[in-house]
Each structure stands twice: as structure tokens, then as C-alpha cells.
Amino acid sequence: MKPRVLVTCPPMLRLFEEFGDDFDAAGLEGCPGDVTQVLSEDELIDLLPGYDGWIIGDDPASERVLDAGGSRLRAAVKWGVGVDNVDFAAFERRGIPITNTPGVFGREVADVAAGYVLGLARSLYRIDREVRAGGWPKPAGVSLWNKRCGIVGFGDIGRETARRCLAFGMEVIAYDPAFVAVPDLEVRAAVWPEAIETLDFLIFTCPLNVHTAGMFNDKIVDRVKRGLFVVNVARGPIIREQALHRGLQSGAIAAAALDVFETEPLPTESPLRTYGDCIFGSHNGSNTVDAVRRVSRTAIKHMAEFLKN
Ligand SMILES: NC(=O)c1ccc[n+]([C@@H]2O[C@H](COP(=O)([O-])OP(=O)(O)OC[C@H]3O[C@@H](n4cnc5c(N)ncnc54)[C@H](O)[C@@H]3O)[C@@H](O)[C@H]2O)c1
Ligand SMILES: O=C(O)[C@H](O)COP(=O)(O)O
């Protein structure tokens, strides 16, 4: 019998029929989970005992889930880059091989970050909304040329974001404890939050971990140059939304563009919704058909390697 592989990441599930041949060629049976939702720990505990492999989405891949439901599991792959929802150590303790698919979304997420920078600087989304409603607004924007941008996390997404910002004529500073210069990118390394009071744009492209959770907080808001634009395409809890709200209220922050939030989907009662100059995404920064195909096939290959013995 072929090893059975549970897939619980919605982007891959939405194109699931496309991967039938890939699963067959890999000698695996691909089994779709629920395309509409992130599964809870209890739902995973009920589901997992039927599977040898798990391609994980944003579900809580926790110690409790493995303890109660992971007895048959022999391999796991986190679809995508972010691993903040996965307890890697818990898998390793049980001898279950696990990997993510690093380095796969740099261009796609950087395209969204760059789109946000343009959208914020020129109020593109507000103008669109108001024209549709019958208006003809003329907000004065800011030029990007010669503006200073800080990028937090100079990895795959951060470097591609820097490339785009440099193409707009911006000066780029990168905050990354493991900064490595890229020969064709003129980027200055800095230690967070050095020079924060000089920035016009601040973009988060780092992982969520104990060091980055809440790194954009009240103290940072009190230091920024008035009128800062903030972009987050990384993970929601890196920004304390209460601090961002305070900054938007006072004008310290001109506007923010967020693909990710502390709670997803963004709660209807979130005060952030009241700021018309802000731009909101739906944690969709990596979601292009091309990227989903590429990453899903990579995930299947990793799974086949793990399960071949
Ligand atoms: N919006 C989306 O849909 C989307 C898509 C893909 C990834 N992401 C998020 O973006 C993150 C980054 O992805 P990537 O592919 O660039 O990863 P990456 O590993 O290539 O780069 C991350 C960089 O952040 C740096 N970093 C780590 N801790 C830091 C800290 N305390 N301060 C500053 N920098 C720090 C690392 O040294 C590394 O260079 C992922 O972990 C994921 O959470 C979001
Ligand atoms: O971390 C990632 O790679 C992206 O956010 C997309 O993956 P996700 O759907 O698991 O968040």
C-alpha cells in the first residue's frame, strides 16, 4: 500500500488535482484536508492517525497533536517558509524527519511589499475606492526617490524587497543579526533599532520568533520620524497592533500596509479598519499560481525522500 500523505495547506489544496501525477510518480497517496480552514489541535488529533506523512500548512503542529495523533506519522514537510506554527523539536524528539521549503517565496512576497510601498506613498488604494464611489480625490503623495527605507530581515524576501526599493531610488538599511552583503545591492547594515528616527519606510520581512515578537512596539513608535510608513509581509505578531494603532492615531505613523495580523482573519472590531490610508492583505503574499505549483512539487519531493525507506 502506498504511504498516505495528509495535506492541510489551503494554497496547495486549492490546486490539488494538479498534483495527482506528482504524488503517483513519488509513490505516495496524496490526501486532501479541509481547504476552507486551518485545523484545530483537536481536529488534527482525530485526523492524523490515518497518515504516514503530513504536508503542514498553518495548523498547530504541536507536541500535543503528535502525542495524541502522531503514532503512525513517519515524515512531515512544512509547506512554505514560516515555521512559527510548527514545534520542530517535538518532531525531532520522536525521530520524525521534518523540513520546510526555504527560499521559495522571495520574489512573490517582495512584489507585494513593493506594491504596498507604492500604494502607501501615493494613496493608490484610497483613490481607487473613492473614484469607485463617485469621488475624484487628489491627495498629495510622497516621492520614493531619495527616501530612506529600513528592512527588518535581510533573507530571501528582504533582499528581493531591497532590490525593488533600490530600483525606486530609495536608500536601504537592513536590520539582520546575520546580515550578509549581496554584491549588487547597495544596502547598509544596522543594528535594530539604530537610525529608526531617520526612516521614511519600515518593512518587516523577518521570521516570527522570540526575538522578533513585538519588536514594533510603543517604544519604537515613540522614536520614529513623524509620518513613517510601515509594511508587514512577515508575521502579524511582530507588530503590536495596539502600538501601531496609537502611532496612527497620533500621526507618528502615516499609514501601514499589512498582509499579516496578530489575529487572522483581521477581527471585524479591529480599530485598524478605521484608517482609510492603510492597506490590508489577507496573508496572501506568496500566493501566485506559479509559486504554489513550485512549492507543492518541492514538498512532495521532500516527502518522497523521507518516506522512501
Ligand atoms: N506574507 C506571506 O505570505 C509570507 C510568505 C512567505 C514568508 N513569510 C514570512 O516571511 C519570513 C521570512 O521569509 P524569508 O523567506 O525571507 O526567510 P529567510 O530565512 O530567507 O530570511 C529571514 C531573515 O530574517 C533574519 N532574522 C532572524 N531573526 C531576526 C531578527 N531578530 N531581526 C532581524 N532579522 C532577523 C534572518 O537572519 C534571515 O536573514 C518567514 O519566516 C515567514 O514568516 C510571509
Ligand atoms: O511562511 C510562508 O511560507 C507563507 O506565509 C506562506 O505559508 P503559510 O500559508 O504557511 O503562511
TrEMBL record:
InterPro entries, alphabetized: D-isomer_2-hydroxyacid_DH, D-isomer_2_OHA_DH_cat_dom, D-isomer_DH_NAD-bd, NAD(P)-bd_dom_sf
Annotated Gene Ontology cellular component terms: cytosol
Residues annotated as domain D-isomer specific 2-hydroxyacid dehydrogenase NAD-binding: 115-285
One Gene Ontology MF term: hydroxypyruvate reductase [NAD(P)H] activity
Assigned EC number: 1.1.1.95
Domain D-isomer specific 2-hydroxyacid dehydrogenase catalytic per the UniProt entry, residue ranges: 29-309
Record-given protein name: D-3-phosphoglycerate dehydrogenase
Originating species: Parvularcula dongshanensis
